[in-house]
Amino acid sequence: MNNKLETISNLFEGSEIRSIWDSEKEEYYFSVVDVISALTDSNNPRNYWNMLKKRMKKEEQSELSTKCVQLKMKSRKDGKSYSTDTLDTKGILRLIESVPSPKAEPFKLWLANLGSERIDEVFDPEIAINRAVEYYRKRGYDDKWIKARLTGIVDRFKLTDVWKESGITKDYEYGILTNEIYKSWSGMKASEYKKFKDLEKNL
Fold this sequence. Notes:
Elements: H1 3-11, E1 19-22, E2 27-31, H2 32-39, H3 45-58, H4 63-66, E3 69-74, E4 81-88, H5 89-98, H6 105-123, H7 126-138, H8 143-165, H9 171-186, H10 190-196
Antiparallel strand pairs: 1-2, 2-4, 3-4
């Protein structure tokens, strides 16, 4: 399971959070009303979300609702697909921070601890490296594979530095070049190959 999807699923253990994978953007999108339902005691999470959007707009904090993407998701009630407000992982975590509910407090504490860990990594980058190694070991990868993976990351930075020196600065330009490299040896775009190998972008 992709690490982002696994993280969100673990946060809402016991609650079904519908999700869709966007292979082009390499990002999961999660149902907003499902998250609202899991965080509150509201009998009508859709109405709760509408009220929350109005409050955000009144407080001039409507950036979250404007980042919503409407995607077709299957309803648990009748099995039909309907347009549903969704947010990516970053948006969902921001939504958790915005919900004034006792149920949301454990999630906010988790986010605060996560932020503290990232700040520690800024001052001591080795912490992040150790965390990555430990993560891969828990996933069952041996040290030889981990070493190759970390070496590959360093080599990729070297390659992008060369591209930057050649005047490549836009994200889409990096994407085009990366896809060409993947196609030359795998016959697939980067996103297709990652999906094939179950190597979607980690959190």
